Amino acid sequence: MTTARGPFVYGDRIQLSGPKNKRYSITLHPEGEFHTHWGAIPHSDIVGRPDASILTMPGGEEFLAMRPLLRDWVMAMPRGAAIVYPKDAAQIVSLADIAPGLRVIEAGVGSGALSLHLLRALGSSGELHSIEIRDEFADIAAANIAAYYGGEAPENWRLSVGALQERLPELEEPGSVDRVVLDMLAPWECVDAAADALVAGGVLLAYVATVTQLSRFVEAVRATGRFTHPESQESMVRGWHVEGLAVRPDHRMVGHTGFLAIARKLADGTVLPELKRRASKSNYSEEDVAAWTPDMVGEMVKSNKVLRKKVRDAQRFAAQRGNPGDGTSEQVAQQPEGTAPQPEQGAAQWAAETPADGTE
User: Fold this and answer.
1) Which letter does DSSP use for residue 23 in this model?
2) Where in the sequence is the domain holding 61, given as residue range(s)?
3) Could you state, in chain order, the average pLDDT of each consecutive group of 10 residues for the chain (360 residues)?
4) Considering the entire predicted model, what is its pTM?
5) CATH number of the domain to which 52 belongs
């Protein structure tokens, strides 16, 4: 994990904010340099400075150097799959009541962003078991989490590869899990396996992108008769520009990223009373199911070549964190929430060509 306090040291991950608040993330190495249009500054000149200090480039421009918060870290780390943004990760931690001492199942792991938030909330006494169906995503997540913890993943985190509905019964005893968090294309396929694994009162939460996915998941949860009535929501974040009397909403905001659906496991034999509500079109036909296929949902699939490159980027990232004296250097422009995914090119090249606020 990035050093919590004190002067910067080699191996630290730091965030640099320059003119127009463009942000860059770098890992400090003995032979490294931070390059900009205004010149370069050696990492050796940064080491030993206090956190939140100013670096002056040869051209006179100033950069604020700070250790990144977790939200900054996940936005700048290498990614293969789209990440759960910090605004949604915070809601997941709260709604699922993630706390130290709990046993949590997460599927799929993607690039590891949500895993880092869950591990932070669980502390050292909780356990997180992440299940990912794709080997490449599992490799990227493992490297990102190892990088955050200084080169080695925490002991209370396990990673398994495979489909949750197949692996969960093999890996966990029935009624032994406190929380199940699903971040996948078809979470309704995992409802029965999650119900078997959860303790009475345990929480099932799904993070989905579209209304069709949300509808099918909620109906699948209701159909089991083993959960409380599901609740659904989404969150939006709108920043504000505040300078003196010039107070207005920002021109850009983090709008829709995903829906959250949550329900709690009932004790065996419990029959939940029906809610009193008006008749609605809650039934669906086989034709309706066609709207819930991966093609209709609009799943974005990256090629195996791109994923292999992402794996190498993430593993190099973890190696640099674990061995700051290897002489390598990298810098990554941080991508803010709500912007388009990073271009498929080298991290250093992207940092040099693309500002962190997504403008051209």
Assistant:
1) E
2) 1-68+329-360
3) 79 90 90 90 94 91 94 90 92 97 95 96 96 94 93 94 95 96 96 97 97 96 95 94 95 90 96 69 61 58 76 78 62 50 34 36
4) 0.80
5) 3.10.330.20
